[in-house]
C-alpha cells in the first residue's frame, strides 16, 4: 500500500507559531511566564501555556499550578512524550475529562495539578519503511522504524515531585502511513509510541483514584 509523504516546511511553521504563542506567556515576565519556562518574576496571576509545564518532566516546578491533593476527587493532567531531543505535548490523547485545554480567556491551565511524562530511554531498529508518495508520485523517502522503551512517570505540576514511575515497551512495528520529509530522497528516524491504553492505565489511579 502506498504511503504518503509531505513537505516538512509546513510542520515547522506550525511549531514556530505555537512556540511564539507560548513565548508570549512563557518567557516575558510581564506576559505571565511559569516557573518551568524560567519566568522567575512570574506572579500567581500569570497565564499558563502547555509549554510552561514541559519542564516538569525534568524536575522543574510551576508555582501557579494547582497543588496536588491525593485525597481530591478529581485531577487534571498534561501529557508529554519524547519527540526528537525534547518533549512534545500529547495531552489530546488523554480522556477529555482528565485534562484541560488552553483557552484565550481566563487561565484554564492553572487547574492542572499533574504532569505525565514518557521519556524514550532506548530503541531498536526493526525495519526500513518505504513506498512513500508525494502528490501521487513515488519518492525515494524512507523511515528507519524503531520499537522503543519509555520511562513513564507522573509528577506533581506545582512541585515537580515524582509520584510514580514505570518502564514500558512500545512494540508497534507498523510503518507510519503519513510522514514528513524535506525532499524526495530523505531517510528519517521514526519511533513507536506508547499506546493510549498503556498510558491511561498507568495514570488512572492518580487521576480518578481507582485502579
Element order: H for helix, E for strand: EHEEEEEEEEEH
Helix content: 10-25%
When the domains are counted, the total is: 1
From the spread of the alpha carbons, the general shape counts as elongated
Calculate the mean pLDDT score and round it: 84
Indicate the structural class: alpha/beta
How many helical elements? 2
Compute the CA-based radius of gyration.
Answer: 19 Å
Count of β-strands: 10
* Low-pLDDT residue spans: 7-44
For the sheet with most strands, the description reads:
6 strands, mixed
Looking at how many chains there are and whether they match, the oligomeric state comes to single chain
Range of strand content: 25-35%
Taking the alpha carbons of the first and last residues, their distance comes to 41 Å
Brief sketch in words of this structure:
With 211 residues, the protein is α/β, with parallel strands linked by helices. The chain has two helices and ten strands, in the order βαβββββββββα.
Description:
The longest helix is centred in the first third of the chain and has 17 residues, at 10-26. The protein has two helices and ten strands. A hairpin with a 5-residue loop joins strand 7 and strand 8. Strands 2, 3, 4, 7, 8 and 10 form a six-stranded mixed sheet that branches. It has one domain (3-207). With 211 residues, it is α/β, with parallel strands linked by helices.
Topology:
Layout: E1 3-7, H1 10-26, E2 77-83, E3 86-89, E4 114-129, E5 132-134, E6 137-138, E7 142-156, E8 162-170, E9 178-181, E10 187-191, H2 196-207
Parallel strand pairs: 1-5, 1-9, 2-4, 7-10
Antiparallel strand pairs: 2-3, 4-7, 5-6, 7-8
Amino acid at each position: 500500500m502506498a504511503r504518503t509523504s509531505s513537505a516538512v516546511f509546513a510542520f515547522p511553521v506550525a511549531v514556530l507559531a505555537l512556540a511564539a504563542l507560548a513565548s508570549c506567556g512563557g518567557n516575558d515576565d510581564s506576559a505571565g511566564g511559569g516557573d518551568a519556562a524560567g519566568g522567575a518574576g512570574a506572579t500567581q496571576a500569570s497565564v499558563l501555556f502547555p509549554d510552561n509545564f514541559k519542564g516538569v518532566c525534568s524536575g522543574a516546578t510551576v508555582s501557579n499550578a494547582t497543588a496536588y491533593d491525593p485525597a481530591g476527587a478529581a485531577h487534571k493532567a498534561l501529557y508529554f512524550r519524547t519527540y526528537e531531543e525534547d518533549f512534545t505535548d500529547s495531552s489530546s490523547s488523554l480522556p477529555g475529562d482528565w485534562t484541560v485545554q488552553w483557552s484565550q480567556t481566563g487561565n484554564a491551565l492553572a487547574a492542572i495539578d499533574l504532569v505525565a511524562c514518557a521519556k524514550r530511554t532506548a530503541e531498536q531498529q526493526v525495519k526500513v519503511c518505504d513506498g512513500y508518495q508525494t502528490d501521487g508520485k513515488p519518492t525515494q523517502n524512507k523511515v528507519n522504524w524503531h520499537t522503543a522503551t519509555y520511562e513513564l512517570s507522573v509528577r506533581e505540576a506545582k512541585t515537580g515531585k515524582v509520584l510514580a514511575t514505570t518502564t514500558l515497551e512500545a512494540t508497534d512495528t507498523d510503518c507510519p502511513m503519513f510522514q514528513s520529509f524535506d525532499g524526495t530522497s530523505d531517510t528519517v528516524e521514526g519511533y513507536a509510541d506508547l499506546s493510549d491504553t498503556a498510558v491511561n492505565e498507568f495514570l488512572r489511579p492518580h487521576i480518578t483514584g481507582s485502579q
